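Quick one, probably user error.
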């Protein structure tokens, strides 16, 4: 991925300061809230808008200070990555994960569904100190992870697989997690997940045809597993770029907007494939990257060691991950084109950076 920083929003974080300050003061019952240092991170994320800020207010005669984060629904005029943003579902998911596992997630504080305050729904959570493997430039090209030792990277890899193991241990059977279910046709969680992706593709393509994506849908139908694993709470965007680390240990698992109920292989394959995506871009640029990192055999073996579960049908789930990411990448291009005026190429597939890798996968050439 190029090192260009994409514009992500037409909103000015500094202009939101006064509105956010008024909202917080009202929320706290007139506690003299003051907000400072409002900013938006640039190294990761292209979907929901993220505002970082410091706040202080009076509580029981004392001054309380907090480093906070607001996740804000994107402006519909800014060509959002996803068709809809359920901030309440994300808020509930964070509460669920914090309450029923030891997966490290930020503490959520307030949910605001009224658009009046900032012009969109949002929620506020505590900010956690740590470091994140960057997307821009990719951590495979230049990052603290690239310069780390092999044993440190393996520690980070295993610890992150451990996050999945602990998340997937949350009991699901017989419980109502309707806010994580897709309201689309389908007899099983995986079928509904897949149908939701088909609808997402129709939303994203806006009349264009992406041959590589349509081939992938056909491949998945032809190779659908005979058996579907028991559903778990799926993080959805399970990649190291959505984890904050203290050293090489996860201290905050972020970005839950793609969370759902589905087979655990959804998260395992996504974690593997997103590294393949960055590694492939790095190799195309003539750089070595991290070829020994996040290999399928190693990730699957560690997951089995931790859970006893043998991940199955991984070819299928990695193609599905590559398909899902292809749809996201095409929409990200549309979003950036909205801001910088870039013209669509004659072949829409050209905006999908990993189209060649996906083509190899569809031909049975998987990178393990």
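Nope, works fine. Designed sequence:
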């Amino acid at each position: 991925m190029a090192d260009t920083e994409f514009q992500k929003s037409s909103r000015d974080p500094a202009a939101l300061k006064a509105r956010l300050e008024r909202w917080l003061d009202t929320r706290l019952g007139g506690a003299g809230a003051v907000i400072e240092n409002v900013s938006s991170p640039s190294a990761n994320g292209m979907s929901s808008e993220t505002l970082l800020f410091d706040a202080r207010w009076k509580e029981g005669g004392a001054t309380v200070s907090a480093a906070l984060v607001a996740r804000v629904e994107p402006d519909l005029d800014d060509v959002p990555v996803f068709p809809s943003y359920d901030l309440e579902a994300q808020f509930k998911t964070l509460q669920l994960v914090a309450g029923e596992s030891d997966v490290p997630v930020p503490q959520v504080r307030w949910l605001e569904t009224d658009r009046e305050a900032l012009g969109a729904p949002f929620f506020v959570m505590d900010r956690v100190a740590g470091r994140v493997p960057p997307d821009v430039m990719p951590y495979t090209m230049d990052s603290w992870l690239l310069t780390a030792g092999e044993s440190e990277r393996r520690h980070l890899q295993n610890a992150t697989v451990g996050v999945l193991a602990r998340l997937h241990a949350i009991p699901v059977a017989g419980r109502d997690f309707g806010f994580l279910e897709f309201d689309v046709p389908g007899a099983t969680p995986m079928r509904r997940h897949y149908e939701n992706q088909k609808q997402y593709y129709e939303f994203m393509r806006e009349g264009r045809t992406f041959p590589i994506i349509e081939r992938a849908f056909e491949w998945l139908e032809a190779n659908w597993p005979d058996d579907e694993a028991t559903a778990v709470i799926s993080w959805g965007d399970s990649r190291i770029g959505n984890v904050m680390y203290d050293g090489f240990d996860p201290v905050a698992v972020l970005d839950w907007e793609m969370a759902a109920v589905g087979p655990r292989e959804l998260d395992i394959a996504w974690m593997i494939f997103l590294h393949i995506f960055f590694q492939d871009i790095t190799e195309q640029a003539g750089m070595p990257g991290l070829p020994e990192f996040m290999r399928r055999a190693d990730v699957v073996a560690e997951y089995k060691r931790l859970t006893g579960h043998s991940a199955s049908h991984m070819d299928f789930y990695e193609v599905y991950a590559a398909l899902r990411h292809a749809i996201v990448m095409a929409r990200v291009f549309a979003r950036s084109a909205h801001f910088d005026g870039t013209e669509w190429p004659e072949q829409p597939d050209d905006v999908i950076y990993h189209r060649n890798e996906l083509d190899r996968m569809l031909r049975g050439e998987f990178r393990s």
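The beta strands are 34-39, 49-59, 62-72, 108-112, 122-126, 231-234, 243-246, 249-253, 260-263.
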